[in-house]
Amino acid sequence: MPELELALLRRSLGDIAGMTEHCDACHRALLIGERVYEYENGQLRCALCRDHERQPPAHSRTVHTAAHGHSIRRLDRRPVRRAA
Question: Which of 5, 10, 16, 49 could connect to 45 by a Cys-Cys bridge, CB 3.0–4.6 Å?
Protein backbone atom coordinates (compact mmCIF):
# COMPACT_ATOMS: atom_id res chain seq x y z
CA MET A 1 0.00 0.00 0.00
CA PRO A 2 2.80 2.53 0.67
CA GLU A 3 3.98 2.23 -2.97
CA LEU A 4 0.52 3.17 -4.22
CA GLU A 5 0.32 6.14 -1.85
CA LEU A 6 3.74 7.34 -2.96
CA ALA A 7 2.84 7.00 -6.64
CA LEU A 8 -0.39 8.97 -6.14
CA LEU A 9 1.44 11.68 -4.20
CA ARG A 10 4.09 12.06 -6.90
CA ARG A 11 1.46 12.24 -9.62
CA SER A 12 -0.56 14.91 -7.82
CA LEU A 13 2.53 17.01 -7.08
CA GLY A 14 3.53 16.76 -10.73
CA ASP A 15 0.09 17.94 -11.79
CA ILE A 16 0.26 20.91 -9.42
CA ALA A 17 3.78 21.85 -10.52
CA GLY A 18 2.68 21.83 -14.14
CA MET A 19 -0.05 24.39 -13.46
CA THR A 20 2.14 26.95 -11.70
CA GLU A 21 4.25 29.62 -13.35
CA HIS A 22 8.02 29.33 -13.25
CA CYS A 23 10.89 31.79 -13.48
CA ASP A 24 12.54 31.44 -16.88
CA ALA A 25 15.99 31.98 -15.39
CA CYS A 26 16.13 29.74 -12.30
CA HIS A 27 13.04 27.60 -13.11
CA ARG A 28 11.75 28.03 -9.56
CA ALA A 29 7.97 27.73 -9.11
CA LEU A 30 6.59 31.17 -8.32
CA LEU A 31 4.66 31.45 -5.08
CA ILE A 32 1.16 32.87 -4.77
CA GLY A 33 1.46 36.52 -3.77
CA GLU A 34 5.01 36.84 -5.13
CA ARG A 35 5.92 39.63 -7.52
CA VAL A 36 6.84 38.47 -11.03
CA TYR A 37 8.48 40.63 -13.69
CA GLU A 38 7.62 40.30 -17.37
CA TYR A 39 9.96 41.46 -20.12
CA GLU A 40 9.26 42.55 -23.70
CA ASN A 41 10.36 39.17 -25.06
CA GLY A 42 7.78 37.36 -22.87
CA GLN A 43 10.28 36.07 -20.32
CA LEU A 44 9.27 35.90 -16.64
CA ARG A 45 11.73 36.63 -13.83
CA CYS A 46 11.30 36.24 -10.10
CA ALA A 47 12.48 38.96 -7.71
CA LEU A 48 15.74 37.07 -7.15
CA CYS A 49 16.64 36.83 -10.85
CA ARG A 50 15.39 40.28 -11.82
CA ASP A 51 18.63 41.94 -10.69
CA HIS A 52 20.63 39.92 -13.25
CA GLU A 53 18.80 41.45 -16.22
CA ARG A 54 20.23 44.46 -18.02
CA GLN A 55 16.96 45.81 -19.35
CA PRO A 56 14.10 46.95 -17.12
CA PRO A 57 10.95 44.81 -17.08
CA ALA A 58 8.01 45.84 -19.24
CA HIS A 59 5.70 45.40 -16.24
CA SER A 60 5.25 43.46 -13.06
CA ARG A 61 2.33 41.71 -11.45
CA THR A 62 1.39 39.56 -8.48
CA VAL A 63 1.12 35.80 -8.92
CA HIS A 64 -2.46 34.62 -8.30
CA THR A 65 -4.06 31.23 -7.83
CA ALA A 66 -5.53 29.33 -10.75
CA ALA A 67 -9.01 30.22 -9.43
CA HIS A 68 -8.33 33.97 -9.59
CA GLY A 69 -11.14 35.68 -11.45
CA HIS A 70 -13.39 32.63 -11.33
CA SER A 71 -14.82 33.16 -7.88
CA ILE A 72 -18.12 34.83 -7.09
CA ARG A 73 -17.86 38.49 -6.16
CA ARG A 74 -20.51 40.61 -4.54
CA LEU A 75 -20.98 43.65 -6.78
CA ASP A 76 -24.01 45.24 -5.14
CA ARG A 77 -22.89 46.63 -1.78
CA ARG A 78 -26.21 48.14 -0.73
CA PRO A 79 -27.47 46.96 2.68
CA VAL A 80 -29.89 44.06 2.56
CA ARG A 81 -33.48 45.12 3.37
CA ARG A 82 -35.36 42.78 5.62
CA ALA A 83 -39.02 42.04 5.03
CA ALA A 84 -41.38 43.39 7.72
Answer: 49
